[in-house]
């Protein structure tokens, strides 16, 4: 969807955090699934704030190459590691590489996720397991592997979806995994809080420019835009701004929160 002009009843999207200083200079963040869409926007926003960033990607791609080029052009304190969060050994590898390169991790952003669209009758057990184990299991593995690599205090931000609360047909495995992330967030905020580790979640609405194909095409995007209070789809940078807030000391008394970035869908 083009945002060159506001949709009827909607408003023009803001330009993002811009020059706003979230006090993250010199801190170290790890972002999973950071080569495209929301993950890429979070990665670049953290770099703009002066943080060092370690990013993981599951496989080589044009997006990974483009991010490497971006890092080189910025001469940024950034590291791209190939790791699959559905594997315990890869989660440990990622955290070890991050710690060796930039030291303790101040911010962990669990963004990696996958989705397929299948009715329940066609949803085989292996596909259920694949999606749940990547989305929910990946966040579990990363947090568990990070416990001896996190700074104290630290901030963990889990990226989930508004469908966790509203539901969506033909994606029971995806919805269940995203709802599980909210439960994981609320459980771990209580368990890890005494150590100074805050755990929060961001629930995304329909975000444009993520590379994710809408099963209903452009008509589907228009329909979702009309379902929001703001009359438009979101942008990856708008999710990144919420992550910057939760990562920063501005949110130092915020934990166990589920922050909706969904345009009032």
UniProtKB/TrEMBL annotation:
- Keyword Cell division listed? The answer is no
Name the chain's protein: Short-chain dehydrogenase
Q: Where is the composition biased (Low complexity)?
A: 1-18
In terms of PROSITE patterns, this protein maps to: ADH_SHORT
Please name the InterPro entries in this protein's record: KR_dom, NAD(P)-bd_dom_sf, Sc_DH/Rdtase_CS, SDR_fam
Q: Which family does it belong to?
A: Belongs to the short-chain dehydrogenases/reductases (SDR) family.
Q: What is the lineage of its organism?
A: Bacteria, Bacillati, Actinomycetota, Actinomycetes, Streptosporangiales
Highest taxon listed in the record's lineage: Bacteria
Q: Where is this region: Disordered?
A: 1-22
- Identify the SUPFAM superfamilies for this entry: NAD(P)-binding Rossmann-fold domains
Give every Ketoreductase domain span.
Answer: 27-210
- Keywords in UniProt for this one? Oxidoreductase
| Keyword Disulfide bond tagged | no
Q: Under the GO molecular function aspect, what terms does this record hold?
A: oxidoreductase activity
């Amino acid at each position: 969807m083009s945002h060159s002009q506001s949709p009827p009843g909607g408003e023009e999207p803001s330009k993002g955090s811009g020059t706003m200083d979230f006090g993250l200079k010199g801190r170290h963040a790890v972002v999973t699934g950071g080569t495209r869409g929301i993950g890429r926007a979070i990665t670049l926003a953290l770099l703009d704030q002066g943080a060092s960033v370690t990013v993981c990607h599951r496989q080589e791609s044009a997006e990974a190459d483009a991010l490497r080029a971006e890092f080189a052009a910025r001469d940024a304190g950034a590291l791209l590691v190939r790791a699959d969060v559905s594997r315990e050994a890869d989660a440990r590898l990622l955290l070890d590489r991050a710690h060796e390169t930039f030291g303790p991790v101040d911010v962990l952003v669990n963004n990696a996720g996958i989705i397929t669209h299948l009715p329940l009758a066609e949803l085989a057990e292996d596909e259920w397991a694949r999606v749940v184990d990547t989305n929910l299991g990946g966040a579990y593995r990363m947090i568990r592997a990070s416990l001896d690599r996190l700074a104290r205090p630290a901030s963990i931000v889990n990226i989930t979806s508004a469908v966790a609360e509203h539901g969506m047909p033909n994606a029971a495995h995806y919805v269940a995994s995203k709802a599980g992330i909210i439960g994981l967030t609320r459980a771990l905020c209580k368990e890890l809080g005494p150590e100074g580790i805050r755990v929060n979640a961001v629930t995304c609405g329909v975000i444009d420019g993520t590379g994710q194909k809408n099963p209903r095409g452009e008509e589907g995007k228009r329909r979702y835009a009309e379902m929001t209070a703001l009359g438009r789809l979101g942008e990856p940078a708008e999710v990144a701004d919420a992550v910057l807030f939760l990562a920063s000391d501005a949110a130092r008394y915020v934990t166990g929160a589920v922050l909706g970035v969904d345009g009032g869908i």
